[in-house]
Amino acid sequence: MEWEVVIGLETHTQLKTNTKIFSGASTTYGAEPNTQACEVSIALPGVLPVLNKEAVNCAIKFGLAIHADIAPRSVFARKNYFYPDLPKGYQISQYELPVVGKGAVTIQVPAVGKNAAYEKAINITRAHLEEDAGKSVHGAVEGMSGIDLNRAGTPLLEIVTEPDMRSAAEAVAYAKKLHELVQWIGICDGNMQEGSFRCDVNVSVRPKGTEKLGTRREIKNLNSFKFMQQAIEYETRWQIETLEDGGTIQQATVLFNPDTGETRAMRSKEEANDYRYFPDPDLLPLEITEADKARIQAEMPELPEAMKARFESQFGLTSYDAATLTADRALADYFVAVVNAGAEAKPAANWVMGAISAKLNAEEKSLAASPVGAESLAALIKRITDNTISNNAAKQVFEAMWNGEGEVDAIIEAKGLKQVSDTGAIEAIIDEVLAANAAMVEEFKAGKEKAFNALVGQAMKASKGKANPAQVNEVLKRKLGA
């Protein structure tokens, strides 16, 4: 039997606010345990929640970015369950009336094996505001567990998809696209190691060609794209093997162990009625007006798809180049800065996607930490364009710039890399080469094209690599009557 995997994602995105969603306590990461747990965070009797307006603005931005329905009226509810890091005994969330309704995110799924790359729209069911819980800390004191409530009340936007994905590759492509988008519009810092972007993945399998969904298992708190891929692939194999062996799948919440590459059941999966949702009596309904949406829309940056289209039309870039540059806002902004500093668009794109990206990846640096700024890179590209230096010399100049040896012109002068473009000087070099390589000349005249390339090489060698290659070719052809 041929099986089909069905995947849906729930992503907890920590919103980029200075304070918590229902109190003025700080959301700064890394503070000493419980130093950011205010009266609201620890649920002292009589305290009341007050909604953080910036968290609402972040939710509206996301809704606009995915062209979703934004509810004019949404309601906060109490999601009731007991856990030690949840002091109130309930989480304030949204259930029946979320702030963001149906929308979509278009993903690019890369080629895998014989399967070509393709584009696919992933439908978003909803995105709702809620508060984060605290954190259980095990082993800080030998034989004991502790509770850190610093995270309690941190604002989250939970983004829920339809079960539209059919492979681990699609799920990872969606998670990466969402990760890029929330950073692009400035609502999340995207730091997965700190828990700012966490994915729960619902996985089920069914016989291919059937419509009925299989029983799903939810893999909790994946904070790495690599682990997500591994977890989905393992869970898919496990479910298929279980069914083919005559077993049944029980709905459950599971955890992924990166050390073993396996998932294991943590608890049976709760249903909505287990949480006894009801509207929170301490919070008024959230009302969003058309004026609110218009104000936020005016503050929105140009979105990746629009910028990609503009790069293609304005700068003449290929679809691939434009997509690569707009995959990250910092990269796109850097490219634009290079072009604005006077570099031609295509060479600028090549250098940004090539040498700059390679160096940053190798040294695990962000663009903000690049030793070569946009203006410096533009100056280097201009020296290639005006034939001051060759492409090979430019690589040497770039290395020197990266290592902090100075600016473009000073490095070219210090290293003697200026290209010889004087026609008279190049003709003199070629005359010497032709005189010294009569056999190669005869071979070329006899129809051997490789001899021409050999003569070009000899001319470049004689000029110590400084001669303009295009002029060398031109003069050599003229003198050989080619």
TrEMBL record:
Keyword presence, Protein transport: no
Pfam families registered for this protein in UniProt: GatB_N, GatB_Yqey
Asn/Gln amidotransferase domain span: 333-480
Taxonomy, superkingdom: Bacteria
Catalyses which reaction(s): L-glutamyl-tRNA(Gln) + L-glutamine + ATP + H2O = L-glutaminyl-tRNA(Gln) + L-glutamate + ADP + phosphate + H(+); L-aspartyl-tRNA(Asn) + L-glutamine + ATP + H2O = L-asparaginyl-tRNA(Asn) + L-glutamate + ADP + phosphate + 2 H(+)
GO biological process: glutaminyl-tRNAGln biosynthesis via transamidation; translation
E.C. numbers: 6.3.5.-
Keyword set, alphabetical order: ATP-binding, Ligase, Nucleotide-binding, Protein biosynthesis, Transferase
GO terms, molecular function: asparaginyl-tRNA synthase (glutamine-hydrolyzing) activity; ATP binding; glutaminyl-tRNA synthase (glutamine-hydrolyzing) activity; transferase activity
Family: Belongs to the GatB/GatE family. GatB subfamily.
Biological role stated in the UniProt entry: Allows the formation of correctly charged Asn-tRNA(Asn) or Gln-tRNA(Gln) through the transamidation of misacylated Asp-tRNA(Asn) or Glu-tRNA(Gln) in organisms which lack either or both of asparaginyl-tRNA or glutaminyl-tRNA synthetases. The reaction takes place in the presence of glutamine and ATP through an activated phospho-Asp-tRNA(Asn) or phospho-Glu-tRNA(Gln).
Record's subunit section: Heterotrimer of A, B and C subunits.
Protein name: Aspartyl/glutamyl-tRNA(Asn/Gln) amidotransferase subunit B
Species lineage: Bacteria, Pseudomonadati, Pseudomonadota, Betaproteobacteria, Nitrosomonadales
